[in-house]
Amino acid sequence: MRVAVFSTKPYDRTFLSRAAATHGHELTFFEPRLDLTTARLAEGFPAVCAFVNDTLDAEVMAALASGGTRVVALRAAGFNNVALDAAEQNGVTVLRVPAYSPHAVAEFSVGLLLALDRRIHRAWARVRENNFALEGLLGHDLYGRTVGIVGTGRIGALVARTYRLGFGCQVVAHDRYEVDDLKAIGVTYVGRDELIERSDIISLHCPLTPETHYLIDEAAIARAKHGFVLINTSRGALIDAEAVIGGPSPTC
User: How many angstroms separate the first and last alpha carbons of the chain?
Assistant: First the structure.
């Protein structure tokens, strides 16, 4: 199948070309993002491969369909940028990544916290300038601190286990569905507001939906502890960036 691949980087070409050779697909790579202006590049392609920042609204879906596209394959698990109703109306099938490696994302999330908490990024920058001063690089023990996990699916559950069993943190969680295995190791499920109020560290592991849009907003920051640490390895729009920047000094 001929596939138009948008928003490509060199690493996309490397891995996708390798997979395409195995499965017999013919890929054409485009660096620009997919939007109404660039949709014409997909004319004649039965399939389009899109990424998280590509626009797949009703107008783009109609343009793709008029050009002969019948399949949109997402290089992401989330599909909040896709007009699914418009896809159905135009006879376009939408495919997505069923799941990322939960261990990879969970480890990256914990790594971000350690870098922030122990000022590793600042220390690295100083050492490059032959500055070995320790002032301003003091971190905090994670042991005994309260970590709030929003979303305890496969990734969030691994993060909760790491903080609870690996670092000895107190872990509170919020999700529609409680995980018995997590409760068995001492993870406590609480309401969202209580989680925000109690947590020294908040780690987000949930999809972007109307309910979670701007989950961390001005009101949430006002309820949170001063100087709390915020980790988000999910969608950016879970956080109101302007509210965070103007809030009472969270560490992100």
Answer: 43
How wide is the angle at C-alpha 234 spanned by C-alphas 91 and 83, nearest 5°? Answer: 20
What's the average model confidence in pLDDT over 107-124? Answer: 94
- Tell me the percentage of the chain whose pLDDT exceeds 90: 83
What is the torsional sign of CA 238, 242, 247, 250?
positive
- Within 10 angstroms of residue 176's Cβ, the number of other Cβ atoms is 8
Give kind and range of the element (H or E) at residue 88.
helix 84-89
Spans of all domains in the chain: 2-95, 102-246
Kindly give the residue spans of alpha helices, DSSP state H, lying in the chain. 10-23, 58-66, 84-89, 102-117, 120-128, 154-161, 180-184, 192-198, 218-223, 241-246
Backbone angles phi, psi at 62, to 5 degrees: -65, -40
pLDDT of residue 77: 85
CATH code, residues 2-95: 3.40.50.720
Structure-block tokens of residue 37: 């202006």
CATH architecture assignment, domain 102-246: 3-Layer(aba) Sandwich (3.40)
- 102-246 and 2-95 share a CATH fold: yes
Q: Which residues contact 107 (CB under 8 A, 6 or more apart)?
A: none
Residues 222 and 161: their CA atoms lie apart, in Å, by: 28
Residue 162 and residue 48: Cα distance in Å, rounded? 38
The amino acid at 86: A
- Model pTM above 0.85: no
CA distance 79 to 163: 29
Residues in a beta bridge with 57: none
CA-CA distance, 247 to 241, in Å (whole number)?
Answer: 10
**Distance in angstroms (rounded) separating the CA atoms of residues 88 and 103:** 34
Q: In degrees, to the nearest 5, what angle opens at C-alpha 230 toward C-alphas 208 and 137? A: 155
